Amino acid sequence: MKISFIGAGRVATHLAHALYAQGFEIVQVYSRNLFHAQVLARTVHATSIDTLADIVATDLMVIAVSDQAIESVITQLATLVDDHTLIVHTSGSTAMQILTKHHLRAGVFYPLQTFSLEREVNWSNTPFLLEAQYDADLLRLNEMARTLSQQIYHYNSEQRLSLHLAAVFANNFSNYCFDIAKQTVERNAVDFNLLTALMKETAEKACQFDPKVVQTGPAMRQDQNTLDAHQSLLQQQQAEDHLAVYRLLSEHIKKRHQVK
Predict the structure, then answer these.
(1) Which of 117, 178, 221, 236 is such that its CA lies 20 to 30 A from the CA of 88?
(2) Contact 89, 60 (CB under 8 A)
């Protein structure tokens, strides 16, 4: 299968490397920033372009750009690519219909994972959420995904959006809380690494049990003395944004676990 990538960011980079390693031919990499396209294209022996008008026909085109740019890209591709090419996006929050209203052979190839250029992806543990306008194309996407992972799911756009929202809570928001935790201890010259074991244990418990059942902490216990002490410290540190987050989360935990 010959594949082109529209985008050269984190998702495109990890996915192109993984598919290239499995023997797929990466033909072109497009980015508005030619240097970014060149960096990725060089590693997968592809051609780099910074103008969509230079795109050539391939079996599959993977749109891996920011969610807000997807419709603009597919609108341009609709005048450049015929229906012999299957076009997919990699977004968790964007409906497949964004593509199908411009191109008949369309689908979604969404890896449910967090991507950073600094860290390799464990593809075998990564779920893939697939969707396609036609059954034959869904089968093709299924076969491609199985070269990377055995965790393949066929969900519609609404289901995928709910999963993406849940992922924001589980990953993005929790990581922001880790960031707040790091800033909090560093203001008092305390080693953030002391929290490593706790952070890992918290994630492991949430994966093994119902998160509500394993909730701990002063808000769950309705321990107002400790809550007040924490808020006083944040006020002393002049961390008003973190204080607002602390109060909001504590109030919701208290409501979730209040005795009825």
Answers:
(1) 117
(2) no
Mean pLDDT within 81-105? 96
Residue 71: CA count within 13 A, CB half-sphere: 7
What is the pLDDT, as a whole number, of residue 260? 66
**Alpha-carbon separation of residue 6 from 22, 51, 98 (angstroms):** 19, 10, 16
- CA atoms of 110 and 11, how far apart (whole Å): 10
Q: What is the pLDDT at residue 258?
A: 87
Asked if 94 and 70 touch (Cβ cutoff 8 Å), the reply is yes
d(CA 34, CA 159): 35
Tens-place pLDDT, residues 27-46: 999 999 999 999 999 999 99
Q: What's the rounded mean pLDDT across residues 103-116? A: 95
| Cβ atoms 72, 93 nearer than 8 A | no
Cα→Cα distances 156→50, 88, 97, 254, Å: 32, 14, 11, 35
**Domains, the chain:** 2-155 (3.40.50.720), 161-256 (1.10.1040.20)
* Tens-place pLDDT, residues 210-251: 999 999 999 999 999 999 999 999 999 999 999 999 999 999
Query: Rg for the chain (alpha carbons), in Å?
Result: 22
Query: Which tokens is 184 given?
Result: 């909090």
**E strand map for the chain:** 2-6, 25-30, 47-49, 60-63, 86-89, 106-111, 128-132, 152-154
User: Any residues with CB less than 8 A from the CB of 256 and at least 6 apart, and which?
Assistant: 212, 215, 220
| 255 CB-contact burial (10 Å; exposed 0-12 / middle 13-18 / buried 19+) | exposed
Q: What is the largest CA-CA distance in the chain?
A: 66
